[in-house]
Write a structure and sequence with these properties.
Blueprint lengths: L2 E6 L3 H12 L4 E7 L3 H11 L2 E2 L3 H6 L5 E4 L6 H11 L3 E3 L7 H14 L4 E3 L7 H12 L5 E9 L11 H18 L3 E7 L15 E7 L4 E7 L7 E8 L3 E3 L7 E4 L2 E4 L5 H4 L1 H16 L8 H20 L3 E2 L11
The structure holds NADP nicotinamide-adenine-dinucleotide phosphate.
NADP nicotinamide-adenine-dinucleotide phosphate binds next to helix 1.
Length: 334
């Protein structure tokens, strides 16, 4: 039987997920959509033969909607996810789960009270082949314990609306989630350093930034976020362990020998870099939602990212090492 899906938020990624679900993946069909921008909702509905509903609650409570995808503007996520939990329907929520850790915690509490895992958060890097390869090696135990992780998250450029705090809330959130998953550890502290700024930024964006996270056991993670690096979309991750250093592979491009030069292309688009991961992630959600539940990153994981983000944004402002206190993972999520 096909999973009947309602989509809340039909901007860029909403339309992409609708297209993915309609043309590429199996086992699901979009039956209803909604957006604050009615024209956008109509365009999205035309992509999949769905109807347009007036509000998120109309989508969530529709009798023919089995499960919900939330791809609206970040500040609107929490209300829609809470309403889906109240309705007892599986919900896939694009990152962030909510824009504050306090709102993420409300979702965690609501899900525990409901007694069933219904929420999957869209941290798709856990489905990326490169990160999965790293995790397999780390989990094998043959390389010893991880001690340090060096990462880069570089974008060619960003538009003028991107400000300093977004280096955390829009960009580093992916590393905050995937590195917690990779190490199996929660974070203990967060700090941000500001190197000399590139001249290719603007007054409201300090770029690049170096973010330092430490985990419960003392693993130190240094993450360079450089969103006007010009040359490509460059995601690097090297885990230094007791007996080995493991580096995530770069996307494969042919090398070209020409005019006395030897060159290889560099990926420039985040969408292309993680396109396979988005497909696997959403198929995993469809399969779990058909069984009435959720897979992948949980609401608790979304909460941990919220706490890590809040601490990093505070560290940007104070210049100090800020604590991250999640407390023990509830048995519900273990
Ligand atoms: P988008 O194209 O801006 O669409 C988001 C929707 O929210 C649109 O309907 C937009 O309406 C609406 N919106 C924007 N600003 C608003 C405001 N100030 N007040 C009320 N509504 C507003 O964004 P998107 O790129 O699709 O992103 C949607 C969500 O997915 C975000 O949370 C984003 O972080 C997440 N995302 C995740 C990934 C990932 O890698 N996992 C990638 C991309 C996006 P208008 O059409 O009127 O602007």
């Amino acid at each position: 039987m096909e999973l009947k899906v309602g989509v809340i938020g039909t901007g860029a990624i909403g339309k992409e997920h609708i297209t993915r679900l309609t043309n590429k993946l199996s086992g699901a069909k979009v039956v209803a959509v909604t957006d604050v921008n009615e024209g956008s909702a109509k365009e999205a509905a035309a992509l999949c033969g769905a109807r347009v509903e007036k509000s998120d609650k109309d989508v969530i409570n529709a009798s023919d909607v089995d499960a919900v995808i939330v791809t609206s503007w970040g500040p609107a996520h929490a209300a829609s996810v809470l309403a889906a939990i109240e309705a007892g329907k599986p919900v896939f929520c694009e990152k962030p789960l909510a824009t504050t850790a306090a709102d993420c915690k409300k979702i965690v509490d609501a899900e525990i009270a409901r007694g069933k895992k219904l929420v999957q958060v869209g941290y798709m890097r856990r489905y990326d082949k490169g990160y999965l390869q790293l995790k397999e090696i780390l989990d094998s135990g043959k390389v010893g314990a991880p001690l340090m992780i060096h990462c880069t998250h570089r974008n060619p450029s960003v538009d003028a609306s991107y400000i300093t705090s977004m280096a955390v809330s829009d960009t580093a959130v992916h590393e905050i989630d995937v590195l917690h998953w990779l190490t199996g550890e929660q974070y203990k502290s967060a700090q941000v350093l500001f190197p000399k700024s590139t001249s290719l930024t603007h007054s409201k964006l300090k770029d690049p930034q170096i973010m330092i996270l430490t985990t419960e056991s003392g693993i130190v993670i240094n993450l360079e976020v450089f969103v006007n690096c010009q040359f490509g979309y460059d995601i690097q991750c090297e885990v230094v362990c007791e007996k080995a250093s493991i580096k995530m592979p770069d996307p494969l491009f042919p090398s070209i020998k020409m005019d006395a030069e030897y060159s290889t292309a560099i990926e420039t688009s985040w969408k292309r870099r993680f396109i396979d991961a988005y497909d696997v992630e959403l198929q995993d959600w469809i399969n779990a939602a058909k069984a009435g539940g959720a897979a992948g990153p949980t609401a608790w994981d979304g909460y941990l990212v919220g706490l890590g983000s809040d601490a990093l944004v505070k560290a940007q402002e104070t210049g100090k090492v800020e604590p991250v206190n999640a407390g023990p993972c509830p048995s519900f999520y273990r």
